């Protein structure tokens, strides 16, 4: 009976025009939608949600029905994003918060200051990060060293330490760190940034081991070249110079990375995707 129904369905499917078949394939009722349901009403805190990968994550998690805590320094951008997402997904609750991850005092006040319905963070996306310049180790300024290490390493540690105790208490949670291919590779002029992402790699792998006997998951996502505001920040607002970085490449997009993060976050509770590397295609 089941077999004959399936065979009728298959015949009907194959007689459809190819455009309809493609549409049905993209809908993927069997697995995709069910796994997205796992993210409904989860509370997701994203650092650096005002641009690039963080902003793309906010859009993808909202589409999956998660409630969001969006943080960054540029709060005007967060407010705009909140307003767009609230119109599109009225059921999704969104809280915005100005937060410089380098500011330990403010990071420590993060959880106590959240409205009660946002306090129990289920998923932390440690995304805030940046690179400054392309100077060799001998030439890089003290200020650039401090900014990269304070943001990419110490900021990630501060936010993790603010959120993890609650996850331990509730015995549930997922920490997703945005590392980089620069967490395992190096290049001339990238010494400090690479050192900071090597540190993210070490922290992620250590956390994974320290939490292996708990239900709390730890994932490190390691992108290659992603076309965001990253290179604009690197070259202090010089868009022309930033654009040249991607010439001759087919770079990844923030959305590509966000989709992967959503995939990792929406696995069943017992599946911990420890790490993933995403590489751009060179054309
Ligand atoms: N783009 C790439 O090629 C690439 C590759 C590998 C890994 N990554 C990593 O991906 C993450 C996101 O970068 P992106 O490419 O999306 O760059 P982006 O477009 O420049 O976005 C960076 C985000 O980080 C935030 N941020 C920077 N400093 C911060 C601070 N002190 N406190 C709080 N937020 C801060 C920025 O927000 P505000 O300025 O508003 O604070 C912004 O929202 C970073 O960790 C980066 O290292 C990027």
UniProtKB/TrEMBL annotation:
<keyword id="KW-0560">Oxidoreductase</keyword>
<dbReference type="InterPro" id="IPR036291">
    <property type="entry name" value="NAD(P)-bd_dom_sf"/>
</dbReference>
<dbReference type="GO" id="GO:0016616">
    <property type="term" value="F:oxidoreductase activity, acting on the CH-OH group of donors, NAD or NADP as acceptor"/>
</dbReference>
<dbReference type="InterPro" id="IPR002347">
    <property type="entry name" value="SDR_fam"/>
</dbReference>
<comment type="similarity">
    <text>Belongs to the short-chain dehydrogenases/reductases (SDR) family.</text>
</comment>
<dbReference type="Pfam" id="PF00106">
    <property type="entry name" value="adh_short"/>
</dbReference>
<protein>
    <submittedName>
        <fullName>9001_t:CDS:1</fullName>
    </submittedName>
</protein>
